[in-house]
Amino acid sequence: MANCGGGDVNDFDMNYEQLLKAQDNCDILIIDVREHAEINKTGALPGSIHIPMCDVADELTKLTSDKFCEKYNRDLPTKETKLVFSCMSGKRSGVVQDRMKKLGYTNVYNYKGGWSEWEQKQKC
Predict the structure, then answer these.
(1) Could you report the per-residue pLDDT of 78-87, keeping only the tens digit for each?
(2) Are the beta carbons of 6 and 104 closer than 8 angstroms?
(3) How does residue 111 score in pLDDT terms, banded at 50, 70 and 90?
């Protein structure tokens, strides 16, 4: 399996079972980074908020706490908040994970299975 972000990314990869636990933890913010058209077609991961890949860094670093809460109905994460990024297959979310690490976010995870795995496991 390829690392999307380099370094010790495997320690910050999340599998399906870990994602299920994360969905029940209100201290963890799950962000679906797919495009609007993809979300409209499939829906987002339960418990996640939707921020397209190209907007994640700006939304997390430039919005005020009040604006973030108003827009996403969640508290603005700090650089230590556990963040889980997801996309269709884990590639784009890995890119976002790497970008957020470079911005100083220390607790960022990539759900490598993405929507593809989520949908498949939900049918079982």
Answers:
(1) 999 999 999 9
(2) no
(3) very high
